[in-house]
What does this fold into?
Amino acid sequence: MRHNKKFNHLGRSKAHREAMLANMASSLIMHKRINTTVAKAKELRKFVEPIITAAKNDTTASRRLAFSYLRDKEAVKELYGTVVDKVGDRPGGYTRILRTGLRLGDNASMCFIELVDFNDNIAKSTSAPKSEGKKRTRRSRRGSGAAKAADQQAPATEETAQAEESAQE
It folds into this structure.
């Protein structure tokens, strides 16, 4: 029976799962964004967000706790250096999962998982108001409007052109 076993085992043994999540968490902290499957990203979110919350309190005990989970000294330095500075005032929700589609080989649903405050592209597009004075120009393959107007005014066939010339004389 599966009573009270709510997390995804990801088809791995306990040691393999913990090592994989530790490696993924340290990669996420170092690179701020990684590409993985949706199932792994959801498990990684549950793994890394409590570590970031504990890192807000910069004590020796919390650093040792983070190192016991991450198993990477450089990732712990990065966590307590740049990551906590950016997410220090955020009450939670430090990661974002962006689905990217299906993997070609096995049709697994893929996604990006990223630290929220480090994606400047999304932050600029949602928070920055668009300037109204800036005009956009659009180009079309069909040509300019002046060329179209000239084409419409020109006679369609040679017979109609000759008829119009004789009428003018």
User: Anything to note?
Assistant: The mean pLDDT is 86. The helical segments are 14-31, 38-55, 60-70, 73-87, 120-127, 145-153, 158-168. The radius of gyration is 30 Å.
